[in-house]
Amino acid sequence: MKRLRWMSGVLAAGLALAAAGCGGGDKAEDDNGPVSLRMTVWTANKDQLALFDQIAADYKSTHPNVTVKFDALPFDSYTTALTTQVAGGNPPDLAWIFEKDAPDFVSSGALTDLTPTLKGTAGYDYDDLAPATTKLWTAGDKLYGYPFSTSPFVVFYNADMLTKAGAQTPDQLVAANQWTWTAAEQAAAKVPAAEPGKFGLVIRDFDYKVWDNLASLWAGYGAAPWSADGKTCQFTSQPMIDAMTFLHNAVYTDKAMPPPGTAADFFAGDSAMTVTQISRAATLKDAKFKWGVAPLPAGPAGAQQLFGQAGIGAFGKGKHPQAAADFLAFFSNPANSAKLAQYFPPPRTSLLNAASLKAANPLLTAEQLDSVVVNGIKNGAVKASHLGYAKIDEAVRAAMDTYYQPGADVPAALAGVCKAVEPLLSTGS
Amino acid sequence: MSVSTASAADTQGGGRGHRPPPGRGRRDHRMTARRRDAVAGYLFVAPQLLGWAAFVGWPVVAVVWYSLHSWNLLAGTFDWAGLANYRQLAHDPALGAVLRATLFFSVGLVVLNLALALLLAVLLNQRLRGTAVFRTIFFSPVVVSLVAWAIVSGTLLQGTGGINALLSKVGITGPNWLHEPGAALIAVIVTQTIKNVGLNMVLFLAALQGVPEELYEAAALDGASRWRTFWRITFPLITPTVLLTSIITVVGSLQVFAPIQVLTAGGPGNSTNVLVYDLYKQGFVAHDLSYASTLGVLLFVIVLALTAIQWQMRKKWVVNE
């Protein structure tokens, strides 16, 4: 009997401990003493981290008690690592957040409302933030994330490889008003024949797993994975069937794109064209080939542009939520936004012009900046997101594998995707 | 308590000149020694028990507790959900595919691993030149890092990788191993089997070498064929090792994670999405730790049931049980 009581005591203590652990969260500490802030980021780029450190050092000169550390987490498992830190009661003070996770973070109540701090900071010019860029990070009239990077999807191309294959470059096709997905695919299909082992077109980071990167193709077809209210699956819509039939032919019939399981890195010279975000332009600094950049090709729905976003949020359960918001106000003020613009296209209307961006982007010409960056942000749409994105993402990924087969029945495969994802969309879980 | 009382009585009794009955004193003394031994024993096992309680016992209890809650990691809420997660489990549209993948994977791995290990052990138990070299070769994957093994295998299994290059030399067009449902499952099973077959092989070798030589001599005198000798003498005598290896391999097959994460990430479709990998995805990709805990409970019950069945069935086919 005694032993039983002893065991139940241990069990109860353990469960209480677990429940306490689940609650997580530390009480806010005094911001007047030494303050150490931690911001998680997914970049490991030395130049970018050096710029962040420089901004933090500038902030310390006026706020000597505040030290900011940037914690680079691996890109692939970034959200998992971040969520685990939050769940473990050790959230960072500030964090980069992917646009696809924005609804979950914004609605969770984990982030601090930044509006009063940003609006109340002298010289911040809050109204300069383009509404299209803050929409995803806003609930009601409260801003829960600062969209520090609004990066349009573009097509980078290797002019040497395309010329060798006897294909026109995207810029030539743009000039001839023939820059369409079909023309891009036809040019791409010539590459493997001219240079065995090389590929024509790669949708970067898609890799037959990260299906949402196909949004760049879907934009031109007017296709979207789900309806605007997020409640209805649209993988079975005609525009989506057309876009996915085009992609299937490009991979399995025309061999314009590498098949599943084949790595082809544009920046290493493995492919002639790649669809990716303009923020990758810095990777081409030491490129050994002649390259160019063009906007996304037009599809049946015309020339639609798309951008991805990354926001910065301040965690309410961090030790210094107000100090974190204050630092973010400094990090994203007009002067620092101009500095960050060389890597991260800013959400500020005043900076969204070729002249301002040119100073920060020496690799791109004013024409390129105007046609792909300024036009992309002003006229583009943001990539799709949804509440409970992680589960939806996984359900679509598993269901899409039926489509990635040489003889796939495209409409049937896409119907399978809707069957898998509809329960998750309707519950909005 | 009783020890100190007895000691006091002894002292008092001695003082009055009345000695206690000899039997009682000896019994008290024995009790003391036994208790001291028990305390020492508990102290010896305490570090192991504490470690087990902290890293096995407690997590098992916690997983059951979590499975009865709804845990939103971002919002930091942890609310009682009763059996809601178990109802979700019953209606999970992917669960059938996950359990099917788990069954095919485990059966494939266990059968291939044990058959190959036994075959290799029998071959390498011959007194021939060079067997030591082959034993080392077959055992060497066991000591290679699991993830490194999977990465190298993944490179070889690519559509244009080494395996298909070899197959094309003999006129066979190999499949895109990791991207076709059936081929992917086979690829993962074979990769994992080659990685671990050496361990079971060594266990079988030790068992084979423990079979008394005179039994073989007697069988030879009776004119038994090698096939008959193996099934009538060798195999029955190594059944305790067969039981051990089958339990280890079945439990191990239900815990395989690294090769699936590196090679297929559960795909194509759900063809290699075994239960333990689905649990990982629910918990650490979809951030639903409550549902992942529910899958953990299901996995625990399956492992427990399979081990219990194997343990019960041993009486029917294991020698000396």
From TrEMBL, chain A:
Instruction: State the name under which the record lists this protein.
Output: ABC transporter substrate-binding protein
Give the PANTHER family listed for this entry.
ARABINOSE-BINDING PROTEIN-RELATED, DIACETYLCHITOBIOSE BINDING PROTEIN DASA
**InterPro entries named among the record's database cross-references:** Bact_solute-bd_prot1, SBP, SBP_1_CS
Give the organism, scientific name. Answer: Hamadaea flava
Q: What keywords does the record list, in alphabetical order?
A: Signal, Transport
Q: Where is the signal peptide?
A: 1-18
Family as reported in the entry's similarity comment:
Belongs to the bacterial solute-binding protein 1 family.
UniProtKB/TrEMBL annotation, chain B:
Keywords associated with the record: Cell membrane, Membrane, Transmembrane, Transmembrane helix, Transport
| Signal peptide stretch | none
Basic residues compositional bias: what residue ranges? 16-29
Q: Which InterPro entries match?
A: ABC_transporter_permease, MetI-like, MetI-like_sf
Subcellular localization: Cell membrane
Q: Where is this region: Disordered?
A: 1-30
Respond yes or no to whether keyword 4Fe-4S is given for this record: no
A Pfam short name: BPD_transp_1
| Transmembrane segments annotated in the record for this chain | 39-68, 103-124, 136-157, 183-208, 229-254, 289-309
Q: Which PROSITE patterns match?
A: ABC_TM1 (PS50928)
Where is composition skewed (Polar residues) in this entry?
1-10
- Classify the protein's membrane topology as the record does: Multi-pass membrane protein
- Identify the CDD domains for this entry: TM_PBP2
Q: Which domain of life is it from?
A: Bacteria
Query: Where does the ABC transmembrane type-1 domain start and stop, copy by copy?
Result: 99-310
Location, primary (coarse class): membrane
Q: What family does the Swiss-Prot or TrEMBL record give for this protein?
A: Belongs to the binding-protein-dependent transport system permease family.
Q: Provide the protein name.
A: Carbohydrate ABC transporter permease
Q: Which organism is it from?
A: Hamadaea flava
